[in-house]
Design a protein that fits this description.
The complex is a heterodimer. By secondary structure, chain A is an all-alpha fold. Chain A contains nine helices and no strands. The radius of gyration of chain B is 17 Å and the shape is globular. Classes of the chains: A mainly alpha, B alpha/beta.
């Protein structure tokens, strides 16, 4: 899964390109299924079985198990799809942002407010 | 012939849906955002559009990554909202305008835009919330709608120049539609924000304010940037400004600002609102 081209580096950023889309397909497909309340309930009843049903890789299953967003991105997860998984656990975008940046939620929210003052 | 009354660009953060449902418009957190809308609603009441062409991006509701069209046009009599998985209320259906949909499709394909056409299409918050903000508590929404969906999810994305040209082609198509209708073009999403990665929470106020200014008199300014430049400058989701650019492109002559609002933050996003009309 390498085109041989040198990818542009954007600090702290993973561009969801073909390589990511290929790598993350099973994980994103599982997250897409969470548009249905019935599927969300099925996932909560048995997370491991649900991950297996969608053929998640060991790396993806571990990322889901630990609910670690950076690891999910590393495993090909796309932000919009991962947000559907986060929603199951009541995580909003500030929770997800705080987790990824290693801040508390209050610190992360303060950082957003600060961006408006600059 | 149909005429274009103007364009409105609006941020589309999902939690706006919850704020509306919980009537938080005057809550201190939300007030600076919601207070931007009354002047635009007054303008809409004056210019009286019958139809809205809504240029937006889907976030994994209608399209999954199994099929990800670069440009898709809705051609349905009705568009339903549905459960998006993140717990925001589902809104009542929106009326379509299949005559304009098919006229757009004919015209755009004729101009070499290879589209995906959708006779069934569910629409997510990026389509519904701007309509709720512009016409609050109006069900059914007083305008008939045509969704135009641009891929801002899976790279490669269409270039800024291409999206501007798509908008221009939409403008020409609407103006050649043989109907006595007044059309508003709505572009949704943005402005700068990044949800994912160690750079989550990235916002670029300086760029946004320049973009808001340039979009009026010099919209081609932003086409100097590649998509990856735009990701770096505006965040992984800030590239939704492509929808704004396409909506601006649909106004074929010179334009003036009707009203603008900009506020940081709404959720993780720099929120923007910009209404424009032809001079």
């Amino acid at each position: 899964m390498n085109s041989g081209k040198v990818k542009r580096e954007i600090p702290g950023t993973t561009v969801f390109d073909g390589e990511q889309a290929r790598k993350g397909y099973a994980l994103n497909k599982m997250c897409f299924s969470f548009n249905s309340a019935e599927n969300r309930a099925e996932f909560l009843r048995d997370q491991e079985a649900y991950c297996a049903k969608f053929g998640l890789s060991a790396q993806q299953r571990e990322a889901v198990r630990s609910l670690n967003v950076l690891k999910m991105i590393e495993a090909g997860g796309n932000a919009y799809y991962l947000a559907k998984l986060g929603g199951i656990f009541g995580l909003d975008m500030q929770d997800i942002g705080a987790q990824q940046t290693g801040m508390s939620k209050d610190e992360f929210k303060a950082k957003l407010v600060e961006a408006g003052r600059k | 012939m149909a005429s274009i009354v103007g364009a409105v660009n609006v941020t589309h953060v999902p939690y706006i849906g919850r704020a509306i449902a919980n009537k938080l418009q005057q809550d201190p957190y939300w007030k600076p955002f919601f207070d931007g809308f009354p002047p635009v609603r007054e303008w809409l009441a004056k210019v009286r559009p019958d139809v809205a062409v809504v240029i937006y991006n889907d976030h994994g509701l209608n399209f999954f990554l199994d099929k990800q069209p670069t440009f898709a046009v809705g051609a349905a009599p009705e568009y339903r909202n549905a459960d998006e998985g993140w717990g925001i209320p589902t809104l009542p259906p929106y009326r379509g305008e299949p005559d304009l949909s098919w006229h757009l499709i004919e015209s755009l394909v004729g101009e070499e835009f290879d589209l995906t056409t959708c006779q069934e299409m569910v629409v997510d918050h990026a389509f519904t919330l701007p309509l709720e903000l512009l016409w609050p508590d109006r069900h059914p929404c007083p305008v008939r709608t045509v969704p135009v969906c641009i891929n801002t999810v899976q790279h490669p994305l269409p270039t800024a120049a291409r999206c501007f040209k798509l908008g221009q082609a939409i403008g020409r198509a609407v103006e050649s539609w043989d109907a006595d209708a007044r059309v508003v073009v709505i572009g949704t999403g943005g402005l700068s924000h990044q949800l994912d990665g160690q750079r989550a929470g990235f916002i670029n106020k300086k760029f946004d304010l320049l973009f808001l200014e340039k979009l009026i008199a010099d919209p081609l300014w932003v086409t100097r940037y590649s998509i990856l430049d735009l990701v770096e400058l505006t965040g992984t989701q800030g590239v939704e400004l492509l929808n704004w650019l396409a909506a601006r492109g649909a106004l074929l002559g010179e334009v003036q600002k009707v009203h603008a609002n900009y506020h940081i933050p709404i959720s993780n996003t720099a929120s923007g609102l910009l209404a424009m009309e032809g001079i």
